[in-house]
Amino acid sequence: ETGVTQSPTHLIKTRGQQVTLRCSSQSGHNTVSWYQQALGQGPQFIFQYYREEENGRGNFPPRFSGLQFPNYSSELNVNALELDDSALYLCASSHQRGSITGELFFGEGSRLTVL
Amino acid sequence: KQEVTQIPAALSVPEGENLVLNCSFTDSAIYNLQWFRQDPGKGLTSLLLIQSSQREQTSGRLNASLDKSSGRSTLYIAASQPGDSATYLCAVSGGGADGLTFGKGTHLIIQP
């Protein structure tokens, strides 16, 4: 059974650019969620995808968007990057039954630096 | 809005000591609570998951308790080792699609 994998591990962008981060879910999981973790803070929920649709969203602007594919892998896209977007972006997968999201398993994260 | 607080923010103890990390949350209507470990610059490793109907969970030297009515959880680490040095995060779930709400973590250092 493979775990959650994310790519790239590190990347550097400049303000105003766009970035795409990728995540492969753990085998058997149908739900993926993304979190942003600034230095010294706990992770903040960005959004969750289930059956290729966003079914939950935290307090993040629309320039944060995502996709979930039929194989349950996912992308996080951030447009018009700002300096404050510099953070560790974590992907988590889980199995949702009905309306209940189960235990989350996290990847190693993608470290984004915006200059 | 759910808020999670972890105390202390940092803790340094000699190897071999037993220790307790604290987590409190403001809304008792949770579905479950998870404790995670995070090494510097790395992702999160799930340590223990406690369902709202449970009082505690144990895994090896770790024991987590949950008092849902008072909005508190503790993580007990027995016979601490230098390899336990990490940041420990507590997170609660409402069970739906609103994601986990995390505390800021407790940075733990175990001195050899």
Strand count, sense and barrel status of the largest sheet of chain A are: 7 strands, mixed
Number of helices of chain B: 0
Query: Residue share in helices of chain A?
Result: under 10%
Overall spatial form of chain B: globular
Q: For the terminal residues of chain A, how far apart are their CA atoms? A: 38 Å
Quantity of strands of chain B, as a count: 11
Morphology of chain A: globular
Given helix and strand content, the structural type of chain B is: mainly beta
Oligomeric nature of the chains: heterodimer
Low-confidence stretches of chain B: none
C-alpha end-to-end distance of chain B = 41 Å
Largest interface: A-B, 31 and 26 residues
General description of the model:
The complex is a heterodimer of chains A (115) and B (112). Chain A has 115 residues and is mostly beta strands. In chain A, 0% of the residues lie in helices and 53% in strands. Chain A is built from no helices and 13 strands. In chain A, strands 2, 4, 5, 6, 9, 12 and 13 form a 7-stranded mixed sheet that branches. In chain A, strands 1-3-8-7 form a 4-stranded antiparallel sheet, with no helix packed on it. A two-stranded antiparallel sheet of chain A has the order 10-11. In chain A, a hairpin with a 2-residue loop joins strand 5 (44-50) and strand 6. Chain A is globular and about 40 Å long. The termini of chain A are far apart. The mean pLDDT of chain A is 92. With 112 residues, chain B is mainly β. Chain B is built from no helices and 11 strands. In chain B, strands 2, 4, 5, 9, 10 and 11 form a 6-stranded mixed sheet that branches. In chain B, a hairpin with a 2-residue loop joins strand 6 (56-59) and strand 7 (62-67). The radius of gyration of chain B is 13 Å and the shape is globular. The termini of chain B are far apart. Chain A binds chain B through residues 4, 6, 33, 35, 40-48, 50, 55-56, 58, 88, 90, 92, 99-101, 103-109, 111, and chain B through 4, 31-32, 34, 36, 41-46, 49, 89, 91, 93, 95-105.
